[in-house]
Amino acid sequence: MRLSHEQFRELAAKHGLAVTHQRQVVYEAVIASHGHHSPESIYAAVRRRIPSISLATVYNNLRLFIECGLLREVSPHASTLRVDGNLKPHHHLVCSRCKSVQDIEGEFIDFNRLSRQLPDGFDLTQPLIEVFGLCRRCRAKN
Amino acid sequence: MRLSHEQFRELAAKHGLAVTHQRQVVYEAVIASHGHHSPESIYAAVRRRIPSISLATVYNNLRLFIECGLLREVSPHASTLRVDGNLKPHHHLVCSRCKSVQDIEGEFIDFNRLSRQLPDGFDLTQPLIEVFGLCRRCRAKN
DNA sequence: TTATTGAACGATAATCAGTATAAAACGACC
DNA sequence: GGTCGTTTTATACTGATTATCGTTCAATAA
Ligand SMILES: [Mn+2]
Ligand SMILES: [Mn+2]
Ligand SMILES: [Zn+2]
Ligand SMILES: [Zn+2]
After folding, report:
1. Are residues A12 and A45 in the same domain?
2. Over the stretch A84-132, which tens digit does the pLDDT of each residue have?
3. Which of A85, B7, B99, B120 has its CA 20 to 30 A from that of B40?
4. CATH number, domain at B55?
5. Would you say B26 and B38 are in contact if contact means Cβ atoms under 8 Å apart?
6. Which residues of A touch B139 (CB under 8 A)?
7. Which domain holds residue A40?
8. Helices (DSSP H) in A1-142: which residue ranges?
9. Which residue in the set B108, B114, B135 is minimally distant from A117, CB to CB?
10. How long is the CA B5 to C1' D24 vector, in angstroms?
């Protein structure tokens, strides 16, 4: 995908990150995945383009991207790291059973009420909300 | 604490769990802790009463309690399991930086709007919400 | 009360995700 | 080409959790 190719070069420049082939490919794999994937699964995807890449490099760069804000970390209740390439403000719907994550839109938070309940000093400038329930599949199993 | 002593026997009976000394003490340690503690720290507490207890027993029983609904699992973004003995419906405020968890009360969710955004089949009968931000301490560090 | 038996426990090995380390490769610059 | 700081790779390591298995316990039937 050419789009994320250019996108990465811009983001890297903005954050003072060197553009390497490995970084480029890792980033593109996350963006192309359109979901909330684990380092393992990103690694699998990246290896198709760079068979010699090391798992450590994938981990290192995912961490780096998260620290710089190129990616968002999403690991609610899950036992392993998940990353999200979608930086537009949005919330998540998480299945308590299988830990799957779906995006959810909409203004369903009353921030006035919420602020009143906040302990002193808690900073909510970029609130992320995760709503837990049962996904369709797990509900069917019951 | 006598209260949780009786409480556990009732809960165990209701869920068909055998009442053992170890289970009793593990459960009481969680309830007495009044927070969101790790298996390690529960283990430390329990050892003061049963020095010979195995870490595996603590893990096994915490898992069991969570599965039966005697405890609530709370491990958002944190790398290790946290348990919550407070089963009253309540939500959590989580620090994105240090992963600390605080309880938060209040009706700040507009469930009408939220329901409209839910994907088909998603079950929200017992919604748990986790709101991410920066706790006071981490904000101070900045 | 005692014997029986499946469940639970304890010790420890194994697993698995993630991190640390150090040597090799890279790449910008001279 | 030689130098130097950065990145990648290979691999060793850590820490949390789970699996295994022999031993012990607790419910209950005789
Ligand atoms: Mn998302
Ligand atoms: Mn709580
Ligand atoms: Zn599910
Ligand atoms: Zn914090």
Report:
1. yes
2. 878 788 899 988 888 888 899 888 999 899 999 999 999 998 788 889 8
3. B7
4. 1.10.10.10
5. no
6. 121-123
7. 2-68
8. 2-15, 21-33, 39-47, 55-68, 111-117, 136-141
9. B108
10. 24
